[in-house]
Structure formats: structure tokens, C-alpha cells
Specification:
heterodimer; A: 113 residues; mainly beta; 5-stranded antiparallel sheet; 5-stranded mixed sheet; B: 114 residues; 7-stranded mixed sheet; 11 strands
């Protein structure tokens, strides 16, 4: 299965700052790279994803960048707001069955007003 | 309620009890999943069903027994659990049987085993 690591495990920023969370993976065949957000007491929800034929994708204040050579992808949040406070999970995938459904350990983002 | 629902939301049980968790998806999806989420650990995939057929069983102890009677419903039957099984159990569904689809999660069942 996929070995997935996220860094940092905790990230504290001031409102308005940018935040970057990095996810490294082991399987070079991975071709789908989603990020999920889980607010306290709530369910995980997909916030952005990217496929291997694209290097970057943006959606308003969030973006994901992919470096397939180095086997990592990153979540970028600009102009952070308190409501961005949550745990963020990466889950790189290989389209070869469900055994590769591996989530990272999560990064807790705390945005202080 | 739309999306993915789970009942009960909270469950406390003794080690000798038998209980079941229920998940229902209203999205017309073909695949359903059970995950375990423990404190300070990543989401752990337990079971996957695609078109009502179990396609993945990630070395889960036999005290957890899944059932998928149709593509909209998924159950997790529990018996003789251990305290270390206390966790949040999340159900999810996705549109197709491939793994490159967004997973829609339910709100979870918070399980406490005494």
C-alpha cells in the first residue's frame, strides 16, 4: 500500500496569513491527489483535488500543487480565516483497487483572529 | 436528510454486547466504505463494497462484520468488542467502483466500548 506522510502535524497562523501543508507519498503510480477538510466534530469533506496530468489547481483561496517527480503535493490556503481551522487530510490514490485508499495522519490548522 | 446518514450517532456498549451501525446513502452511488478514526491516528479503511459485493477487507478482526443488502445501505455488526475498538466509525460512499472518486462521508458513529 501507499506510505503517506503529512507535514506539519500542527500549524498555527494568524488570520490573513498563508498556510501550506505538504503531503509526500511513496507510490509513483499515484494519479489522483485529493485534500479533505474535517472541522471539529464534523465529517471529512473534499475541498480540492488534482489529477496527475495537471501541476496546479486553484479554487478561490485554496490551491493544490503537484510535484510528481518528487512525489509530493501541497495544499495552499491564502488569506486564512478562523473558519479555516480544521484538520486537513491528504489521500493520494492509485487507480488499481481499493487497497491504496490511504489517508495521511492529518494536519491541524489553527487560525487565530 | 440528503447525502450520507449514519445511526446511531453515539453508542456505548459493553464487551459482551452485540450492536449494529447503520449507514444509508441517498446519492445513487455504487460504492460504500467503512472507516475507523481513532485519536491521533489516520483514517483506517476497514471495508469496501462495490455494487453490494465486498471488494476489500483490510485485515479487520472478525468481531466486525459488514453487511451490504443493497447499494444504498451498509451495516457494521459488532460483537465482543474490546475497549481499543472505541473510535469514530465513518461511513462513506462514492459514485463508481474505482478509487479515483470523491468520497462523501457520513457524520459518523462515536463508539465507546466499556
Amino acid at each position: 500500500g501507499e506510505n503517506v506522510e503529512q507535514h506539519p502535524s500542527t500549524l498555527s497562523v494568524q488570520e490573513g496569513d498563508s498556510a501550506v501543508i505538504k503531503c509526500t507519498y511513496s507510490d509513483s503510480a499515484s494519479n489522483y491527489f485529493p485534500w479533505y477538510k474535517q472541522e471539529l466534530g464534523k465529517r471529512p469533506q473534499l475541498i480540492i483535488d488534482i489529477r496527475s496530468n495537471v501541476g496546479e489547481k486553484k479554487d478561490q483561496r485554496i490551491a493544490v500543487t503537484l510535484n510528481k517527480t518528487a512525489k509530493h503535493f501541497s495544499l495552499h490556503i491564502t488569506e486564512t480565516q478562523p473558519e479555516d481551522s480544521a484538520v486537513y487530510f491528504c489521500a493520494p490514490r492509485v487507480n488499481s483497487g481499493y487497497s491504496t485508499l490511504t489517508f495521511g495522519k492529518g494536519t491541524m490548522l489553527l487560525v487565530s483572529p | 436528510e440528503t447525502g450520507v446518514t449514519q445511526t446511531p450517532r453515539h453508542l456505548v456498549m459493553g464487551m459482551t454486547n452485540k450492536k449494529s451501525l447503520k449507514c444509508e446513502q441517498h446519492l445513487g452511488h455504487n460504492a460504500m466504505y467503512w472507516y475507523k478514526q481513532s485519536a491521533k491516528k489516520p483514517l483506517e479503511l476497514m471495508f469496501v463494497y462495490s455494487l453490494e459485493e465486498r471488494v476489500e477487507n483490510n485485515s479487520v478482526p472478525s468481531r466486525f462484520s459488514p453487511e451490504c443488502p443493497n447499494s444504498s445501505h451498509l451495516f457494521l455488526h459488532l460483537h465482543t468488542l474490546q475497549p481499543e475498538d472505541s473510535a469514530l466509525y465513518l461511513c462513506a460512499s462514492s459514485q463508481e467502483s474505482g478509487s479515483l472518486n470523491e468520497q462523501f462521508f457520513g457524520p459518523g458513529t462515536r463508539l465507546t466500548v466499556l
